[in-house]
Amino acid sequence: GGDSSYTIYELISKSKYTTKFAKLVDEHPHVVDVLNSTKANYTLFVPIDKAFEDIPEDHKKPSKEFIESALLYHVGLGEYPARRILHSYTLPTALDEDLLGGEPQRLRASVGLGGVKLNFYSKVVAADIAAKNGIIHAVNHILVPPPYVGRIITLFPDRFSTLLLAYEKTDFVKFIHGVNLKGSTVFVPTNEAFHWLGPRANAFLFNTDRGREYLKAILKYNIAPNATLYTDAFYDETDSKQQQNAPVHESRTEHYDLPTLLGEAHISVDISRIFGFASIKVNGFTRVVVPNGVAKNGVIQVVNRVPLPPHKGHGGHQSENDGGIEVEDLISRLEDWV
């Protein structure tokens, strides 16, 4: 479909399926300019009119700034035909996010039996409509710029209630509000990941005053400040810039050594790619099980184990044994920072 003699803006203005989105775009001259521009190519994920039926009639209209941000969040930078999306984990948008150091906010792409989904919930219902200045895909839900990391975690208590309890027991929200971050990578352990530490370690961490200090140290260790690492992009706002935006080859492993909020303790991340598929390991063996939860102020990488600083003395990472960790072992790994 499409007609490559028309711009993206002209095509959505003419289509009977995208009248609501086009009408909003018309109220924002900057967005009109972007979608008409032939200086660069873009990919528009345009919500069909039916997508707007989710919005209740009596809904208070959001601010003009919010609507403009939301419109720009539907615009991918560069050309992403469907076949390229199949090999992308995230893609940059025209929405620059101050809380990511001014870098483009990203959309998360995933491919499943139901086709291509963006940010878990919006499905591509028509693909590869050609325009003079890029490509249009139609989607069935409006793409809302993502909320803060903390807010996203609270939306899934069935997965993260132990982590939420840990935040509560350590007054962590108060601590994190005092930290000035330009983006972050937050390694978010599932309930099973905490369970895997074993009953003794959990009793110590959650039910003793001393243990709570160690629990807070773990929570700090699980956040990489000013370093937002997605499967296919790295926004490095740290003082020690790492290899930035290195080209992605078909098969290889990339290694990142990220700072954490726990003193000098670092967390290592290995991304290995083969035939367009990537897997992420943290500190050698912990697996990222849900990658690239995009957030306003960073990215969430959901992990199947609670990442802990490696043993002192040898750089070895804890092995994938039958589960559980001795309280003494936990203390020896963290005591330098407690």
Automatic annotation (TrEMBL):
Pfam families: Fasciclin. Residues 5-143, 147-307 form the FAS1 domain. It comes from the Eukaryota. This is Predicted protein.
